Amino acid sequence: MTIGLPQYLVVSGVLLALGLFAIVTRKNAVAILMGVELVLNAGLLNLVAFSRFGGGLDGQVFALFGIVLAAAEAVVALAIVLQVFRARRSVDASKACELKE
Amino acid sequence: MHEVAPVLQDFPLLFLIPLLPLLGAVWNAVMGARMQRRFGNAAVHVPAILFPAGSFVISLWSFITLAGAPHGTSMYNYLWAWLPIGNLQADVAFLMDRLSGVMALVVTFVGTLIHVYSTGYMKDEPAYWRFFAYLNLFMFAMLVLVLGDNFLLMFVGWEGVGLCSYLLISFWWREREKAVAGMKAFVVNRVGDLGFSLGVFLLFWGLMTTPASPPASNHGQVDAHGAAVAAHGEEAPALGTSVAFREVEQILQDPVKRTRIVDRNVLGIGLITLVCLLLFVGATGKSAQIPLYTWLPDAMAGPTPVSALIHAATMVTAGVYMVARLHFLFTLSPAAMTVVATVGALTALFAASIGLFQNDIKKVLAYSTVSQLGFMFVAVGVGAYWVGIFHLMTHAFFKACLFLGSGSVIMGCHHEQDMRKMGGLKKLMPITAATYFVSCAAIAGFPFFSGFFSKDEILWKAFNSGNILLPGGGLILWVIAAVAALGTSFYMFRSYYMTFSGEYRGAASHGHDVVAKADGAHGAHDDPHSTDAHAAHGAHADPHSDPHAADVSGHDAHGGHGHLPVESPWAMTSVLAVLGFLALAGGYVGLPLLWGLPNVFEAWLEPVFASTADRVTSAGFGHGVEWALMGFSIIVAFGGFFAARVLYKDGRSPIPARLIASESALVQGTHRVIFNKYYVDEAYGFVFVKGSLVLSRALALWDSRVIDGLVNLAGTIGRAFSFLQGAIDRLFVDGLVELVGNVIQAAGTRMRRVQTGRIQAYVQGMALGALALVALAYLLAW
Description:
- The complex is a heterodimer.
- Chain A has three helices and no strands.
- Helices cover 77% and strands 0% of the residues of chain A.
- The model of chain A has no long low-confidence stretch (mean pLDDT 89).
- A three-stranded mixed β-sheet of chain B has the order 1-2-3. A two-stranded antiparallel ribbon of chain B has the order 4-5.
């Protein structure tokens, strides 16, 4: 069996689903961040796969940028999580809901 | 006839003559009450006297300058253009010619003296400052009237003196009868003023619409209809549009123009005649002639100095002055002149007859004033203008003296005005008695007293007049006036003897109760002293007057009536002395030419009346007749005097009392009719006062029923409409607006639950939404 585009896309879809699942179900802000990373990487995987099978190197380049952006995003997000922890002694995202209505 | 071209000489101080008293009035009106409270009466009356005195000095200065200038010169002071409206050009400008110079001197001189007198007479008055403010204001208005250079400015003064007269008659306005008297004077004067203003309008209209030369297309006759004349007027220029006396006089001096306006008819009578009659209606109001004389006797409700200044010496002579001022109009209309002279003569007789039976000393003087004004109108009516002004001047002296003397008596007798309760005052008030006697002699026409020269000249001019349209010429006028002169002499000496001779009939012969009652009834007339007056003027009384009031009541309590009258303070007696002297000597400026002596006064006024002198004709009686008439008037004067002396001296003669008590219906009836002033007041009251009350009641009914009904109906309809509109607003418009709001609010209330604050919920929603979109895209694509 040759590994073609559909296989990549399935993996990417699975990653997206797992990531979303993590985001929605986990209460720990760090775990949610990890879910976000999964979603992001599912997207990047798509880019790379389309680039490999569709032609052109644009997708590869986008993916590289995306990785760098993901790193920067993680830094900022973790800093926020740290501040939240410092303020509330907890990183439970479901309890940080003061901004409701 | 020698033409005298009017020359105007600038005299820049002329405006100060009216202005100074105005300043005095303003000063006392604004500061007077405070000054009086802080510094006493002197702070009020010193400026109040100094300002008119300053006017007198300037008048004298201007007068002397005038005397030094050539004939026909007038002092003139132009201030500013007042009403430049269309063709009309009225200036605020003052002019002193020889006529207004005499008037200004008399007004400022007598006026200043009466201010001095008032310091004595009014000294216990709480509203002292108000009195002097009014007096000063009066001087201002009178001087504007006299010195005004045109009709409109004269009218301002004319109205101003009327206002001041009203203010001063009802000076003690808390007493109803005095307030009513003031109102009456004002309303009656209004009637006259309407005539005056209509006369001025008509004259102006006539001058403006009469073309100066006959229009080419016209058939030699002037159209009475304004429109037609105006159409022609574009081709031929009008006579003129001036309202200044001297310019109108100049227009009328041109024979062609004069003929054109004299030939003009309005409403069937000559334009000039109508103008003169209307102006004379104004004069009858201001100068108290038939039929508008009724206000003057009532005006005696005012303080006595006011009666002397305004209602005897100056204001009431304004009508005479006006006729003399407008001699160039009146001489053009023999009919109007006849009316003036006849009304004057009738008034003289009518008022003299009422004066015979009055018991109130001021009422006697009031009717005598009306009568003497009648004499003046006889003089100006027969074209003897200088004589009218001459009598005006001598009358100002002796009548002011008489009134001030009566004021002195009234004050001495504790505010008693009834002559029956006086008597014997000669010993107690010698100066007052002497001056009163001199003035009586002057008004009666004793030889060598001032009134003799002026009144005798009037009688002679009336007799000798060739202008009068009545059958018999001036003879009728002369007879009426001579009878009036006899009456004058009689009632004046009657008042003198009742007041000054015999025994004092004040409190002594009456019980205390009677006097107290009389005090209540009569004493209230002129009463700055009594506790009554203080109570009445309580609002004006300042703290200073309280101890004084107590003092006065104490004085009354221990029988003020028992005290004999005492002579008045020197401020009053000195004024009486000055005026008494002038009543004696004032006539020497106008000695009869008959005696071969120079008549300074006639020569002085001659240039003023020169332009019309040739139109005043005489009947041509010789010197013999004049001597005879003079002898006759001396007999008349002494006849009245002796009759009064026999009947009233010392109150011993029983005849007057018996006559009054007589049972005879004729005597009783005559006495009652005359004593009640021929019931003229009652008749006027019934016709005019009642009439206007009934009319106003009818109109009020019309108003309240019909007009108000209409208004109320409109209101009701409006209310119904607005109720409907309100309902629509409330139900529909408001409903719509609230619906929008409610929907949005309800939606918000429900939607806000979505914002939970929990991130996962949002993500969940996002993911589900994305899924739904994908599913939708899938379904739609398929």
